[in-house]
Amino acid sequence: MRVGVDIDGVLADSLPLWVKELNIYFRQNKSLQEMQLQDVCSSYEITREDFQGFLLDRSRFLMTSPAPLEGASYYLNQLKKAHDIFIVSARDEKFGVETRDWLHKYSLPYDEILLLGSHDKREACLTNDLNVLVEDTLKISVEVSEAGVPVLLMDAPYNQGILPGLVYRTHSWQDIYRTIADEPHRFERLP
After folding, report:
1. Which domains, and CATH codes, for the chain?
2. Mean pLDDT computed over every residue of the chain
3. What DSSP character marks residue 118?
4. Which residue from 114, 133, 138, 153 has the least number of CB within 10 angstroms?
5. Full-prediction pTM beyond 0.85?
6. Helix axis angle, 48-64 relative to 96-105, nearest 10°?
7. How far apart are CA 165 and CA 171, in angstroms?
8. Sign of torsion, CA 108 73 32 167?
9. Taking CA 8 as the corner, what is the angle to CA 5 and CA 11, rounded to the nearest 5 degrees?
């Protein structure tokens, strides 16, 4: 099976670091629950230019500093024994070296890495014939599932809502591993 895996919020415990850095940078005191990952500008009541300045200043730090989510390395290595792993990230290729170094540092294996520079993952999943995508963003999950690719959605405060038929909520890497290992028929692609 071909398994797509996002980085931030799925492999990397990025959100707490993002909130901490945004709070420092913009002198605010937002909680994790107040953060809308897809709309940072609204969450922090800042302009797009303000946010671009933050990204210019802090992107490399934000991509290299988070710890992996609990169980990510162990269970991804278990999955790698039987499946092809495709890292599918909205990160831009200009952060390719930092991203690959971070994956290597935490023993997170993969067969191929797709740094899209965009949150549109639908085409990458179809082009690479992925059987399933592990994702943390509800909007991306819906778009990918509408293209016929099942999604395991890593539970987070910012992705609550009603899930369509091919999106399955998970709460840990152990859940992800068990779902893929115990229910592979769920992810078989139809001809």
Report:
1. 2-13+67-187 (3.40.50.1000), 15-64 (no CATH)
2. 92
3. S
4. 114
5. yes
6. 40
7. 18
8. positive
9. 55
For 134-155, write each residue's pLDDT tens digit.
Answer: 999 999 999 999 999 999 999 9
Distance, CA of 5 to CA of 15 (rounded, Å): 17
How far is the CA of 54 from the CAs of 29, 50, 185, in angstroms?
16, 6, 44
Q: Decide: 149 and 50 in contact? Cβ < 8 Å.
A: no
Residue whose C-alpha is closest to residue 125's, from 143, 159, 149, 101: 149
Tokens 């913009």 identify what position? 26
- pLDDT of 2-16, one tens digit each? 999 999 999 999 989
Q: How far apart are CA 76 and CA 108, in angstroms?
A: 7
Q: Kindly compute the dihedral angle of the four CA atoms of residues 87, 92, 93, 98, in this order, to the nearest 10 degrees.
A: -80
